[in-house]
Design a protein that fits this description.
Blueprint: H1 2-36, H2 41-59, H3 63-77
């Protein structure tokens, strides 16, 4: 019974750690795409804002919000 409880606890933390590891990869992808993106200045400013907010959320430990925010930035970039 103890093994099952420990396993359940470990599995519950797996998704959070998966999000945590994915955020930096998405930020790097956004950074790379911004270098060659042909967006209006307004859209590029929005991408920069979303990218910065996503990093803040990631650093604060809110990885689900970070992934959503970074996803918005990627959508603006057409990724």
């Amino acid at each position: 019974m103890k093994r099952l409880a420990v396993l359940a606890i470990l599995v519950s933390f797996a998704p959070a750690s998966a999000f945590a590891n994915a955020c930096p990869a998405h930020m790097a992808e956004i950074d790379q795409a911004m270098a060659s993106a042909s967006l209006s200045e307004e859209d590029m400013a929005k991408v920069r804002e979303l990218r910065a907010l996503g990093e803040e959320q990631h650093n604060a430990g809110d990885h689900a919000a970070s992934m959503a925010t970074l996803g918005e930035a990627k959508a603006l970039l057409g990724l």
